[in-house]
Design brief:
Elements lengths: L50 H19 L4 E2 L2 E2 L1 E4 L4 E4 L2 E3 L4 H22 L2 H6 L1 H17 L2 H9 L4 H26 L5 H9 L5 H21 L1 H7 L2 H4 L10 E4 L1 H4 L24 H4 L20 H12 L7 E4 L1 H6 L3 H8 L2 H23 L3 E7 L6 E3 L3 E12 L5 E8 L5 E2 L4 E4 L4 E11 L6 E11 L5 E10 L2
Antiparallel strand pairs: 1-2, 3-4, 4-5, 6-7, 8-10, 9-10, 10-14, 11-13, 11-15, 12-14, 15-16
Helix pairs in contact: 1-4, 2-16, 4-6, 4-8, 6-8
Amino acid sequence: MTSDPTPDRKTIPIAVSSDTSPITPPEGASPELISLYESHQKIYPRSVSGFFSRMRWATVFLTQLVFYGLPWLDWGQRQAVLFDLGSRRFYIFNLVLYPQDFIYLTGLLVISALSLFLFTAVAGRLWCGYACPQTVYTEIFLWIEKRTEGDRSARMRRDAAGFSLDKLGRKTAKHAIWLAVGVWTGFTFVGYFTPIAELAREFLSMDVGPWETFWVFFYGFATYGNAGFMREQVCKHMCPYARFQSAMFDKDTLIVTYDAERGEPRGARSKKLDLSQSSLGACVDCSLCVQVCPTGIDIRKGLQYECIGCGACADVCDEVMDKMDYPRGLVKYSTENAVNQHWTQSQTLRHVFRPRVLVYTLILWTIIGLMFYSLAHRPPFKVDVERDRTSLAREVDGGLIENVFRLQIMNASEAPQRVHIQVDGLAGLKVVTDPDLVVDAAQSRWVVVRLQVPVETISPGSHPIHFEIDGQDSTAVVIEKSVFIVPR
């Protein structure tokens, strides 16, 4: 007999029914189909005006002015901002960047990530609520929808009604404008990689290339689909930021909050009701905060991952409070600690700028400063050294050992550069080819450089050398390492 390994464990008897007959509905009742998945309910966001709404539209105007206008801005004889993938050069105003300048893209990505961490730690999803392209284009498409189909109630009535010519006309006009905005957005995006004036001429002459056509319509239909149909579904289900935002929040992060202590118990009432003599809270249960929410959540249930922090519910709640002659701020930007401990605005702000935020800020500005310093002091040309692949080393007339190198000299300025090539590291080492050359503005040039050294002055093997390229029109000097090979 085996002993019980856990003799002190209490045994709880479990009753098991021996009835295995299927459950049948009562006589006369029809079976009910229960779906395990909730069907998607279309959201009809209500228009709202207020401080946060104005801030959101100001961001829309600013971002779209930059996005749509920047490709048409000229800088000298070229487009001011152009990422020329064909020639592998990237123009950003007076900067000419090459693939070798990848470190600056890395710095930009680090700055973007730290900025996201900083803004999220301070005030939650500010990026999502105001500057994210999904939010920006959803606002634009909602404005077009309102202008063509009417306000929220009119849209809901029209969608619930049957077919009519008025409905067909308004829907057609809306989708035509949506498509036009989407295609123009795709055209502008491609204009950052192909000169936009040239791209426009190609479209007008119907001579556009297949790749440009594909990407224009790809990004155009992506904008049309995401902002016109998917909207909040992108924020709720496709965007990963909603899932990991909680890792960057804490109890001193400014978020859109509902003051439940002041608002509950909620309920409808007359405007003449004296709130101090009533058992009701300040919330009149009008549900306008739900109607204006672009993701359709109820902020009175607390912070939810679907909340993008746009502040629309705060704007509409302030309007209701004004009409009821109640103090504003039932829904507002605040922190969990501030609401629970009844802090004043100054106390809240002091806790918002906590050590975590200050460290993020210090690191962010340090990286920004280093990046601008590096850009300001980088040499006007770059050099890559490659050995000739056809011959590592060879002996030539006169008892000399010769190595052949290929130098790529990239002019990172808007003016021609005269450079002088010299080399050191070995006794008697000299440059046989012409050491002086000119590289045109914003161009790169491959040159063949032959180096020779007397055979009696050097031993077999690999010897380190240094190419020194001096800018004749500037004080810049670029030094690149390589090796001189002597056969055994």
